[in-house]
Specification:
CATH superfamily of the largest domain: ANL, N-terminal domain
CATH architecture of the largest domain: 3-Layer(aba) Sandwich
Number of domains: 3
Largest sheet: 8 strands, mixed
Helix content: 25-40%
Structural class: alpha/beta
Shape: globular
Strand order of the largest sheet: 2-1-11-10-12-13-14-15
Distance between the termini: 70 Å
Bound molecules: adenosine-5'-diphosphate
Length: 542
Amino acid sequence: MLGLMQQWPLLCHKIIDHAAAQHSRREIVSRSIEGPIVRTTYEQVRERSLRVAARLAAEGFERGDRIATLAWNGARHIEAWYGIMGMGGVYHTLNPRLFPDQIAWIMNHAEDKALFVDLTFLPIVAKIAPLVKSLKKIVVLTDAAHMPAGAPAGAVPYEEWLAEAATGFEWLAMDENEACGMCYTSGTTGDPKGVVYSHRSNVLHAMMAALPDAMGVSSRDVILPVVPMFHANAWGLAQSAPMVGAKLVMPGGKMDGASIYELLDTEKVTFTAAVPTVWLMLLQYLEETGKKLPYLKKVVIGGSACPRAMTKKFQENYDVEVIHAWGMTEMSPLGSLGTQKPETMHLTGEAKLDMQEKQGFAPFGVEMKVTDDDNRELPHDGKTFGRLKVRGPAVAASYYGGAGQEQFDAEGWFDTGDVAHIDENGNMQITDRAKDVIKSGGEWISTITLENLAVGHPDIAEAAAIGIRHPKWDERPLIVAVAKPGKSPTRESLIAFMDGKIAKWWMPDDVVFVSEIPHTATGKIQKTTLREQFKDYRLPTE
Ligand code: ADP
């Protein structure tokens, strides 16, 4: 027997329709690339998205065509996304922090036909456009007055291009399983792999993300997604915010402490999200200036492990609740969030911080398990760690073009490549990426634990733990650290600081200070580069 309810496909443009119908005057505030702060509303964004769709369709772009964006977070980028999706296209976010050759490789792999680009990135486009044969159209997200003389041949300014679009376009009726978006994982090993989102997966993910025990956002929130739309869909916020009708504040290209603080303060932001490196800059700015965060209630921190010291500062010095989150591009991206269940909500002080070092529990729509190398499920005891596997309606079923098939099994589980344990309340903690874990005497040492501990040292800004070859133990930990400005911590003081806080055999064999640690395009420590840099390093314990 079938249900007798309406078929109402889960299509992304319904999100912007809803926002315009229910929250028409709610603002989207953007720090524009041209400079000034620009204000628009959901009603206007919907209207302009329809024009984007009309214009793309009129120029012959078709259902299924991949249309790239190389842009910061701003209202025009959102309009482009909804317009592309609403005419049946597939938005493809490009990460400008990659090398131009990598971007061109990705665009060729995806066969992108058009590109929406911010002024900032025109120099990149000058390098990649000749390499991408499928590319037919470049729209620069600005107006004619701001088009630079050296813009690529044939590139058109967005505002004028949009003004010429026909009105009265109707969103395409589609199957909810059709593709609507695409994002490549940064490929720290091997070639980048393409993840293809469907309308259905994006709508379900936006709902999951908004749930009270996930991000917990509402129409009364003012959301500042510092995490870029090109980094795993801005963690779903470009869809969750209009879905719930929250005001959006978009930071454009300025992510330094002073610029982020200015928006948090003047727009009375209640909710924000980004990777730890962004918050390092903001906290440093707050400490230098003595400023406070009177409006901000919650900050979601993920993408790499949120150090305990960071959580402590936000909560104790600024009264801002930290939600530690884990996810990946392949999961749209949210996998787990560290909000408290009744079992742990009574915790305070250090015990609460212990809990918050975990990456939290899965919302509805994510199934999660930890297995050994033979695919046997491991107990939820908060200590036995193994391979973290997930499945759900917003988790990739395969990569574009069939790469990386070994990560997907016959029962639909996706092997995340992360190593984790899960406790009796379902709270998961990542101990490592499988390829980063340090193997010492047949046992594993968690690099995340070592790094978190090291950055708790008052004079250390950032730290990375890597395994160095050792004749007896196979590998032993080396800490590569960056001192805080004006401080000069020593190897001995760091070792003394860590001593007693972890098992003896987890203690680093050595510490090296460097001026900078390399990062990937999504702000993670680039372990491959570090391992290469230290491949001939001899430990004093050898
Ligand atoms: P990329 O690999 O392209 O940078 P992702 O942003 O999708 O792309 O990276 C996902 C990975 O980031 C996860 O598999 C995990 O290793 C790491 N990660 C994300 N959030 C956390 C977190 N809170 N703690 C530890 N690791 C995290």
